[in-house]
Amino acid sequence: MTRITGGLIDRSQTLNFTFDGKRYxxxxxxxxxxxxxxxxxxxxxxxxxxxxPRGVVAAGSEEPNALVTVGSGARATPNTRATVVELFDGxxxxxxxxxxxxxxxxxxxxxxxxxxxxxxFYYKTFMWPKSFWEKLYEPIIRRAAGLGKLPMQADPDxxxxxxxxxxxxxxxxxxxxxxxxxxxxxxxxxxxxxxxDFRLGGRLLAESHALDDAPPTDWLAGVxxxxxxxxxxxILTRTTVFGAYDHxxxxxxxxxxxxxxxxxxxxxxxxxxxxxxxxxxxxxAIERHIPFANNDRPGVMLAGAMRAYANRWAVTPQxxxxxxxxxxxxNDDGHRxxxxxxxxxxxxxxxxxPREDAPRLGECQLFAGGQVTGTQGRLxxxxxxxxxxxxxxxxxxxxxxxxxGWNPNLHLAAHHRGRPVWDDALQAFVPGPDGPPGLCAIGxxxxxGTTAAALASGAKGAQDALRDLGIAASLPDLPVAxxxxxxxxxxxxxxxxxxxWVDFQNDVTVKDIALAHRxxxxxxxxxxxxxxxxxATDQGKTxxxxxxxxxxxxxxxxxxxxxxTVFRPPYTPVAISALSGGDPGTHFKPTRLTPTxxxxxxxxxxxxxxxxxxxxxxxxxxGETHWRQSVDREAQAVRAGVGICDVTxxxxxxxxxxxxxxxxxxxYANTMSTLKVGRVRYGLMLREDGFVYDDGTCARxxxxxxxxxxxxxxxxxxxRNMEFARQGLWPDLDVQIISTTDAWAQIAVAGxxxxxxxxxxxxxxxxxxxxxxxxxxxxxxxxxxxxARLFRISFSGELAYxxxxxxxxxxxxxxxxxxxxxxxxxxxxxxxxxxxxxIEKGHCxxxxxxxxxxxQMLGLGRMVSQKKDALGVVxxxxxxxxxxxRALVGLMPADPATPLVGGAHLFTAGAAQKTETDQGWxxxxxxxxxxxxxxxxxxxxxxxxxxxxxxxxxxPLAGTDVTVRVVSxxxxxxxxxxxxx
Amino acid sequence: MIIPHPLLGPRDSQEFTIxxxxxxxxxxxxxxxxxxxxxxxxxxLRDNPAGLHRELWYHEQGDRSWLVVTRDTLTHEILGAxxxxxxxxxxxxxxx
Lengths: 981, 96
Known about the structure:
The complex is a heterodimer.
Chain A: E1 15-19, E2 22-26, H1 32-38, E3 45-46, E4 53-54, E5 67-70, E6 77-81, E7 91-95, H2 109-112, H3 121-125, H4 132-144, E8 159-171, H5 175-186, E9 191-194, H6 216-229, E10 233-236, E11 239-245, E12 249-255, E13 269-281, E14 285-287, E15 300-302, H7 303-313, E16 325-329, H8 332-343, E17 348-353, E18 366-368, E19 371-376, E20 383-388, E21 391-396, E22 399-403, E23 406-408, E24 421-423, E25 428-430, E26 439-441, H9 451-468, E27 501-503, E28 508-509, H10 510-518, H11 524-531, H12 544-555, H13 559-562, H14 576-580, E29 592-593, H15 597-602, E30 606-610, E31 613-618, H16 627-640, E32 643-646, E33 651-656, H17 660-667, E34 680-686, E35 692-702, E36 705-710, H18 715-729, E37 736-739, E38 744-750, H19 754-759, E39 777-782, E40 786-791, E41 800-806, H20 810-820, E42 827-828, H21 831-841, H22 879-882, E43 886-893, E44 905-908, E45 920-928, E46 933-941, E47 950-955, E48 960-967, H23 977-980
Parallel strand pairs in A: 1-7, 8-9, 8-13, 9-10, 13-26, 15-22, 16-17, 16-22, 17-18, 29-31, 32-42
Antiparallel strand pairs in A: 1-2, 3-4, 5-6, 5-7, 11-12, 12-13, 14-23, 19-20, 20-21, 24-25, 27-28, 30-31, 32-38, 33-36, 33-37, 34-35, 35-36, 38-41, 39-40, 40-41, 43-46, 43-48, 44-45, 44-47, 45-46, 47-48
Chain B: E1 2-5, E2 9-12, E3 17-21, H1 35-44, E4 52-58, E5 66-72, E6 78-83, H2 84-92
């Protein structure tokens, strides 16, 4: 309907799409916004707070109004700016924040109530009663005010991340960016050129000026072809550089297949991390508007956007051909829109220019010294009121282009807390000197807004940047281009009654800013938060500077004195899926599998996460219907015969060197240097603050060779600390360490028949109690020559060993042990049975060694040597730690069938249950098939002196109390006879 | 951030883990008189300067070197990096 000739669209193809279910057609090259305008659709959204009807304002990523949901089902993407959605066949778009429909929005009533919804309304009104906020106020406000909704389904598409390194990153592919990229790439530098648009050219695509007496598209075609032929230049279109980070690192999102109905095997978006030695910000400029009463009707848009729609997309802004268009501009550039539209046959009613000396640039009516003071039209503009020469009259007008001048798009130059600098001649902020190091703005982003200046500053900027890097670049021949610089007159808003919108997206008016000022919000940051100006998806791209100017007027300060708010990444919204970089769900972190994982899986094991590891939890057998049946069976099999369990996940650290023993003496609270070769000792490691950090075993394989183990959870951290001690504390000790956790498969072989089983797999080794007693270790071979390490250590309290073989033999060893032990009744057991066995013995794990417990609490106080200096030993002697009276105890419910709950708090029987009377807590619980009772471990005040006492275990979450008897934590075989036989 | 590793050249900070103030290298003698007070200072009293800060970084996803990195906490500018073992040896010799 309002499509005109020309433009950069491919009329040979038609693309069908829908908006709110209604079918429309457009062409390749269209955006959703241009295609909707071409179909006469002006109403594209409802405003955030007042539900005012809104149309498109801009033609780029700065768009505040035309937010739509694109796609359906799991692919539905809310809050997408229609101005940056590249049209494709089958596109489905839906309007947001309206009910029941965009044209008839019931919540438009909010607009009538606007006197009550002024800035800070929510803060003032919904303060009390406090409990109402979460239950009542917030849900209602959220429903009424807002943006689009997430589909609440998993994202079906793939995302990727990539890394780029370059000499020069050029951000923006307009006149300045292209000139810069050409200059740098011809000089042989490694260049990345990124532009958020799907077509290179920037503002050149939107303007009608000639370059070298030819349409700008001619020059663009030549430059683009040359750039694409250069191997040292990488062009990323549809790519938004959204943040400048430290040391020349930039974040960018490439919309790889957002312009396709289905990604079709491709990723949807790629997150790029670009490391650039130098970068040039060629992001152009964003036009500002001039607030006047009711300036937010569909049909009122930025004059530059109106020109872009006409020149690039061959679309005029009125709903009907023949309707009149007017321009309201305080600068010469706005007049160009009138000229370009007239050249394309669009009827121009006139140009309203508040400057008394406004130049007459074309053959249309000029209201010099005039202002627009109001608008009418229910769902779209129908008339405007013009104050001119003492009159204030209504005129029919279907579309109004507004230009208040251009703001350099300096967002990225103001990351790193770079402060923009006010340029009085340009009447705009320009990038300051303290932005991200290595970044320089060129072209319109630097205030060099004419085409000729942009081209020249781009080429010069690239030459200067490369000179810093020692690369000589010569300036290219640049085309002759327009060079008419026309800063705006300092007219920031039209005073008068009625609401004049400053920030369309957040529904903030000039009056709201004035109110914030009256309420003493004097800092711009306070004004921003009180009014919400400059928040949400557009971050005030079209509003901020205007708001500062209004605020400056109110305070009587200058604009630079008023200052700007802080700019932060991202420049435009970035999807969480893109930030995840293709690693959603279980891919978010590594999953580590033990060497016997597949072996266990084949045997039907149930697995459980243990840090990054997956460990076999238990091995159900046919007929077992409850996990307890499997676990009880496994635990009993170990105590009665023999069981095997993969314990590879425990950290293993190899410590070698002449000073290895001295080094371990300084790491462990107990002494290791007295350990004989061929023996293992339990080791207790403290944090420097005196609390227990970790425990494990130290095996001395040779005079200068130890293998130490850590808990599964702390394997990486203990190794890190050991490296710190080795390098940072005692660099002169002769010691080398390396983690071998993944190199060795380690299998626990536990139970009274474990020796009998192992004797069948070791080669020529004497495992008798005399030759290989409790806490012995050795290197040997098994299964006919396979190198192995054998440790006689026990976590279960039974006669037990741990056998380590190279990781790749782990599963084969399990097979061999199962085969050789069939007649001994060998069973594989999982983490649950392992836990039952250790709780029955009172052995500690992470539940007890949780970073808040001391050696004394664990009953290990005597292990802390008082004769030497080791990590944590000094501060473990602190009064508060020494005075700790809680101690590890065993707990049995009075009724053996009553389960205990980990985390339950302990109280003296009959005592009030308060923090002041808290006596401790339960750390670990299980059912003991050997005691036929639920049991637990816990820390209890004066626990060692309270054996036999009945106390209360309280679980206030469930409201339950259980009477428990305090017993020794060593439920079974307290003398340890079984493990020494 | 990019950390200039003294052995490996510029490396992305994502490969590193940070542990804060390099003062942790100056561990007091646990057998000396007044050790408890010295350890209290060592462990709990750290400066948190707005400006130059010497801090410990661990090349965990790399060669496992501990480094002392001098960083401006206001700008994130990195003015240098050296091996923690070199710094520790100097400390042991009595020079900072």
